[in-house]
Amino acid sequence: MINKKIVLLILSLMPFLGIAQGINFEHITLDEALTKAKAENKLVFIDFYTVWCGPCKKMAREIFPLSTVGELYNNNFINLKLDAEKEGEAVAKQYNVTGYPTLLYLDAEGKVLLEDTAFKHEDTFIEMANRAINSQNSKYSLENLKNEFPSRLNDEQFLKMYIRKMDEFGQDISKGVDAWLKVQTEMNESSPEMLKYLLKNSRNILIGGKGEQILEENYDTYMKQASSFEARMLPRIKTQILNGTLDTAVRNKDAELMKVYIEAYKQQPKNRIKKDDLLDAELIYYEMLDDDTSYKTITANYINNLIDQTSIEEIKTADEKSYSMYKKAYDNDPKLARERMLNASKEGLKASKLLKELNELSKGYLEKSTSKKELKAIGKWIKFGYKVKEDNCFMDDLQAEFFFRKGKTQKALELKERAIKNWPKTDKKFVNKEYELQQLKKSI
């Protein structure tokens, strides 16, 4: 049997023995990391992850343990690994982290040197560290570029360099692209070169910006001179601009741009407008404004309309029909994929979708509720949810939060445990429910 003390001793001596090791992530707060970085003349690296994020797990499994990575990061950074939905939630909000993994590089003052998202291979990850190290004293550091940008909006060459550098730093380049398009002299706006640029940067063009204006004024000309590939892509570019504007507004917490997106979304053909997507955008908008009253009003209106327009009998009939269909398919050809769908259909596909939506919207409403009237409305929604399906984890979870709010902590705990027991294990955020249970237990 291996002696645990010997193993621990070897692990502690690894750096001195020259044994290969990966990144040493320290279990300290950001403030402590910044203080330590200043004392040791280092930078700070943060890996923001979530437990349900596949690329995060891949980074942890394949990249962080590499000796080449560990040598560079341990010598130059104080390294932190923060779950953006748990202990790292406040820091994630501080740095506006919205995607996972987010790889963030800070100087000892907490200023951002470099930021990027998604899985990175070894060479790219090492290059990013070197760029962060070199950028801190560079004339074109991220901080300097951001400070200089507002006064250089008419400088074509600066803007071109700004776009390239900001892209290297993993930052949003939409404002840079818009500013450059207004002053650039390199391309005629109706030229094939401009068409290629617009297609390449479609996700960095904003609704109401110069790029959209150029596209609209020259659309027919572009179609005449487009290659077969470009002709296929051009009709899709407006959707790309719409989606890019949403991404930019959310990333930058830009309420004004979010409002522009919502108005543009409403102008789409009716068959492209999804009520739940529009609601999500409006809720994000009112969150940005800290307008709880409007947030609660549109949530309540949506849920009440949903309840009024929902026939429980129709849902049950549709779910029974779906189950029969999947059972027949599985019986004829019992493949694993069909078994999964059969098991999901047992719970009622349509009912589960509705109940999950009701759970999420009601919990958002509950967090902002301040009156007995509002709590009474939530109680009504919970009763409806149990009518849709008498025994369901989504309403158990919502009622647990409802009881906790009313001070009925023991009932809340029992319901939360029952909700987790029956929660779909295929839900990638299932682990968040376990975390909520842990926090509930700590509060009792």
How would you describe this structure to a colleague?
The structure is a single chain. Strands 2-1-3-4 form a 4-stranded mixed sheet, sandwiched between helices. It has 3 domains: 4-137, Glutaredoxin (3-Layer(aba) Sandwich); 147-281, no CATH class; 291-443, Alpha Horseshoe (Serine Threonine Protein Phosphatase 5, Tetratricopeptide repeat). The longest helix has 21 residues, at 312-332. A hairpin with a 5-residue loop joins strand 3 and strand 4. The chain contains 23 helices and 4 strands. 67% of the residues lie in helices and 6% in strands. The chain has helices at 4-17, 30-40, 54-63, 67-76, 89-94, 122-135, 142-148, 156-168, 174-183, 192-200, 210-225, 228-233, 237-252, 255-266, 275-289, 292-308, 312-332, 336-346, 349-368, 372-388, 393-405, 409-422, 430-443, and strands at residues 43-49, 77-83, 102-106, 112-117. The protein has 444 residues and is mostly helical.
Total domain units: 3
With helices defined by DSSP (H or I, 4 residues minimum), what is the helix count? 23
Distance between the termini: 42 Å
**What is the topology, as strand order, of the major beta sheet?**
2-1-3-4
- Under CATH, the topology of the largest domain can be stated as Serine Threonine Protein Phosphatase 5, Tetratricopeptide repeat
**Which residues form runs of ≥5 with pLDDT under 50?**
14-19
Would you tell me the structural class of the helices and strands?
mainly alpha
The percent range for helix content is 55-70%
Number of strands: 4
Please give the CATH class of the largest domain.
Mainly Alpha
The CATH architecture term of the largest domain is Alpha Horseshoe
Largest sheet: 4 strands, mixed
Mean pLDDT: 90
**Oligomeric composition of the shown chains:** single chain
Order of helices and strands: HHEHHEHEEHHHHHHHHHHHHHHHHHH
What share of the residues does DSSP label as strand, in percent?
5-15%
Protein name: Thioredoxin family protein
Domain Thioredoxin: 8-134
Keywords: Redox-active center, Signal
Organism: Aestuariibaculum sediminum
